Amino acid sequence: MTTNHRLGAESLTLGYGDRTVVASLDLAVPPGRITVIVGANACGKSTLLRSMSRLLAPREGRVVLDGKAVHRFAAKELARTLGLLPQSPIAPEGITVSDLVGRGRHPHQGVFSRWNANDDAAVASALEATHTEALADRSVDELSGGQRQRVWIAMALAQQTDLLLLDEPTTFLDASHQIEVLDLLTDLNRSRGTTIVMVLHDLNLAARYADHLIALADGRLHASGSPAEVLTEENVRAVFGLDSRIVEDPVSGRPLMLPIGRHHVLAATAPTAPAGEVHAASAPVRRPLPGG
């Protein structure tokens, strides 16, 4: 694996029909690092990822891989370098888990080449990494949402690309499996140098696992940089329309976002009282006793 591939966007404008979703976007993905894209619903996160994998052609500008527009690569050439796990992939009816994961090896098959030991090893490794070995002979149709998501991730891992794009890879997963998947992707990045770009909704998981954060707002780049640079109270307000407090994550030392909401404004904004004092606003109301 190599960390030298460079992926980015130049004056990129994307849309569907008459609607523009991403406008005049310039960005660079740090090679060999984990980049997480965050933003409110419908801000263009998934659309950007689709364009980076050339599933969506730009209206203007281009997505560039190693100085060359991704739409100028041959399909298999690009698929050997860049893999995508979309938001809602669809499996062929009746396909088994092992067969689906094996489809990740398609870019490595030539016209005359046959399935070989390297392919077997790649599939076995992907199943083991995602803890789906016991599901290998089962139909994908029979699996729960969480199991199915881990199988799709296994297929992406079996592709063994230098760059991996994932659109909400923790969808359908409970808290334990979310951490398991993000730890797995971190292991992949650290052991093989795989450049990872993913969309996450959970800002705190994004800050904990990202080396680089990209925040989109209304289809434009609002902020990019380290989690400490991007996850600020001002940016959360501008991007999500949400008041928050940013504190240090006691586990990772990264920024941790605490949403305020309408029902906890007082606790979030009231000054801290010296020891032994009680603020008037939070002190219990003492009513006179009858006849007192």
Write the layout of secondary structure elements.
Elements: E1 7-16, E2 19-29, E3 34-39, H1 45-52, E4 60-65, E5 68-69, H2 75-79, E6 82-85, H3 97-102, H4 117-129, H5 145-158, E7 163-167, H6 175-192, E8 195-199, H7 203-209, E9 212-217, E10 220-225, H8 227-230, H9 233-240, E11 244-248, E12 255-259, H10 265-269
Parallel strand pairs: 3-8, 3-9, 6-7, 7-8
Antiparallel strand pairs: 1-2, 1-4, 4-5, 9-10, 11-12
Describe the structure.
- It is built from 10 helices and 12 strands.
- With 292 residues, the protein is α/β, with parallel strands linked by helices.
- It has a 6-stranded mixed beta sheet, with helices on both faces. The chain has a 4-stranded antiparallel beta sheet with strand order 2-1-4-5, covered by helices on one side. Strands 11-12 form a two-stranded antiparallel sheet.
- α6 (175-192) links the parallel β7 (163-167) and β8 (195-199).
- α4 packs antiparallel against α5 (145-158).
- The radius of gyration is 23 Å and the shape is globular.
- The model is unreliable at 275-292 (pLDDT under 50).
